[in-house]
Design a protein that fits this description.
This protein is mainly beta. It is 13% helix and 49% strand. The chain has one domain: Immunoglobulin-like. The longest helix has 19 residues. It starts with a helix and ends with a strand. Bound molecules: copper (II) ion.
C-alpha cells in the first residue's frame, strides 16, 4: 500500500511542479543588474520588492538558467573592512517594501557563461518562503 502511495507521489509531483507554484503577492520594482566588465563573469543586481498581499513574504532563493548562481548579499563592516555576507531570508513587511540598492544589499550573480551587455535582459526566478515563485526580468545597465 505504502509503495503505491510513494509511486503516485513520484508521478504526480514532477508534472505538477512547473505550474503549481502560487503567486507571491509581491511586485518587483525596477529590477536591474550592472553590466559585466572585461573577463568578469560576476556582477550585482538590485530591485525593490513591494508587498501587495497585505501579509508580507520572505525571499528565500534565486534561480538562474545556464548554471549561473545568484545569492542575496548584505555588506557588513568587519573592523575597517567591508565584507559581503549571504542572506538566507530577505523579508518584505506586510504592505511594505524592501530594497536591494547599490548602497545596501545586492543580488550577487556568479558563474555567468558570457558577458552582460547594456540593453540586455537577465531573467531570475524569485522563490519565496511560502512556496510561491515568480520571474523577474533584470535590465542590464551601468547604474
Ligand atoms: Cu556580493
Amino acid at each position: 500500500m505504502l509503495r503505491w502511495v510513494l509511486l503516485a507521489m513520484a508521478v504526480a509531483f514532477p508534472l505538477a511542479a512547473p505550474w503549481a507554484a502560487a503567486e507571491p503577492g509581491i511586485k518587483v520594482e525596477d529590477p536591474w543588474v550592472r553590466v559585466t566588465f572585461g573577463q568578469s563573469r560576476a556582477t550585482a543586481g538590485y530591485m525593490a520588492l513591494i508587498d501587495q498581499s497585505g501579509k508580507g513574504n520572505t525571499l528565500v532563493g534565486l534561480e538562474m538558467a545556464g548554471g549561473a548562481k545568484a545569492e542575496i548579499h548584505e555588506t557588513v563592516m568587519d573592523g575597517d573592512v567591508v565584507k559581503m555576507r549571504m542572506v538566507k531570508a530577505f523579508s518584505i513587511p506586510a504592505g511594505g517594501r524592501a530594497e536591494l540598492t547599490p548602497t545596501g544589499g545586492h543580488i550577487m550573480i556568479m558563474g555567468l557563461t558570457g558577458p552582460l551587455k547594456m540593453g540586455e535582459t537577465l531573467p531570475i526566478k524569485l522563490k519565496f518562503a511560502d512556496g510561491s515563485e515568480m520571474m523577474a526580468n533584470f535590465a542590464v545597465r551601468t547604474n
